[in-house]
Amino acid sequence: MSLGFPEKGNRLAEESRAILQDRNAPQEILLAFTSLLRASTYLTLTQDQYVELRQVAQAGLKIARGSGDQWHVAMFLYWAGQYARLQKQYKQAAQTGEKGLAIAERLGESWLIASFFSLLLGTVEYECGSYLEARRRFEQGLRYFKETGQPWTIAVSYGHLGNVAAALRDFPEAECCYRKRLKIFGESDGQLWETSARCSA
Q1: What DSSP letter does each residue of 71-130 carry, written as one string?
Q2: Which pLDDT tens digit goes with each residue over 111-165?
Q3: More confident residue, 163 or 196
Q4: d(CA 26, CA 102)
Q5: Sign of dihedral through CA atoms 2, 109, 124, 29?
Q6: Do the Cβ atoms of 82 and 46 come closer than 8 Å?
Q7: d(CA 136, CA 68)
């Protein structure tokens, strides 16, 4: 979840701000969402910060539900699930993720669907040691990320699948996945960040 580039994270947050303004999002949603984006760029956060950011996500979720904005409901469920995961509250993270996934599927938003599969639910299963289920989730996420044509998310998905293969001691498969990930990075010519920065559009 953490990219470790605060200055680029700030740029991502500003681009997201413009996107949300185009969506005529309430100011409270805009501020909450961009706060979560900025926080996600740090390498490490304290447990107290996880609690605080989870509260931000839950506050944004309440506003989004009140306005009937299902896109933001799904997004804030994603963030709430992520911060629950980072607090190692895996059951809560999975339940929150499944709720958000159901909304994303109803909306037909490929990027949102993939994010729930690959970046949240698959990661929860992996961290819990359920590697076969994690692989299934990551594969589902990869399929949807390929539909969006965004190199960064495809590369991340191959990295996740490589981690699962390594955990299952399938080292040839792990190497294959890692090579695919590196190939995408190598062919991106520095454009991966710009692509990922537009992922909420």
Answers
A1: HHHHHHHHHHHHHHHHTT-HHHHHHHHHHHHHHHHHHT-HHHHHIIIIIIIHHHHHHTT-
A2: 999 999 999 999 999 999 999 999 999 999 999 999 988 888 899 999 999 999 9
A3: 163
A4: 24
A5: positive
A6: no
A7: 32
**In contact, 144 and 111? CB cutoff 8 Å:** yes
Alpha-carbon 68 to chain mean position: 22
The one-letter amino acid at 71: W
SS3 of 45-56: CCHHHHHHHHHH
pTM of the model: 0.76
Tokens 């997004």, residue located: 75
- Give dist(CA 23, CA 102) in Å, integer: 22
What is the helix, strand, coil percentage profile of the chain, to 5?
80, 0, 20
Is 9 within 8 Å of 41 (Cβ atoms)? yes
Q: From CA 168, how far away is CA 179, in angstroms rounded? A: 18
Query: pLDDT digit string (tens) for 7-58?
Result: 555 555 565 556 555 556 666 666 666 666 566 655 467 777 777 777 778 8
pLDDT bracket for residue 185 (50, 70, 90): confident
